Amino acid sequence: MEYRKCGTTYVVRLDVEDEIVESLQRLCEDEKIDLAQISGIGALKQAEIGVFDTTTKQYHSNTYTGVYEIGNLTGNISTMNGVPYFHLHITIGNINHHECYSGHLNKGVVGATAELFVNVIDGKIDREFSPEVGLNIIRFVDEN
């Protein structure tokens, strides 16, 4: 992973074998990022993607291995219990353009390169588990 800060945005290049979530974790720790918006494109050789079932309140994850293009990677960084929390969604397509998969990105291993833009936002947003929803939802923090 290499990155440069341009204003309030980090431009991040990931290389073959870099893992997206682990790389973002390192970036947030190194640069003390608590709140940001993420977008990205690139190519993956492996992705673990989950879809949340609102009825059972459980994630169902699948792992996809092969040649995949990232059609869209979007999400945000906040914190939960004082550590970075990533809420990332991804859409990937296969080499034959016949299948696309989309959902919550749990893991993404880069197959060629990935280009991420991490736009830092001034402020702090925390997360807390909502038993009603079954997810870690945004909790607004009074900064005073």
Task: Describe this entry's structure for a reader.
The structure is a single chain. The protein is mainly β. The chain has a single domain, classed as Hypothetical protein, similar to alpha- acetolactate decarboxylase, domain 2 (60s Ribosomal Protein L30, Chain: A). 8% of the residues lie in helices and 68% in strands. It has one helix and eight strands; from the N terminus they run ββαββββββ. The protein has one helix at residues 20-31, and strands at residues 2-6, 9-15, 36-53, 58-80, 83-94, 100-120, 125-130, 135-140. Strands 1, 2, 3, 4, 5 and 6 form a six-stranded antiparallel beta sheet that branches. Strand 5 (83-94) and strand 6 (100-120) form a beta hairpin. The protein is flat, with a radius of gyration of 16 Å. The model has no long low-confidence stretch (mean pLDDT 96).
Main attributes?
60s Ribosomal Protein L30, Chain: A; six-stranded antiparallel beta sheet
Q: What would you say the CATH architecture is?
A: 2-Layer Sandwich
Q: Strand portion, in percent?
A: over 45%
Count of spatially separate domains: 1
- Within CATH, the superfamily carries the name Hypothetical protein, similar to alpha- acetolactate decarboxylase, domain 2
Which whole number gives the mean pLDDT? 96
H and E string:
EEHEEEEEE
Return the CATH class: Alpha Beta
CATH fold-level label: 60s Ribosomal Protein L30, Chain: A
- Structural classification: mainly beta
Radius of gyration computed on alpha carbons: 16 Å
Keywords: DNA-binding
Organism: Clostridium facile
GO molecular function: DNA binding
Domain PPC: 4-141
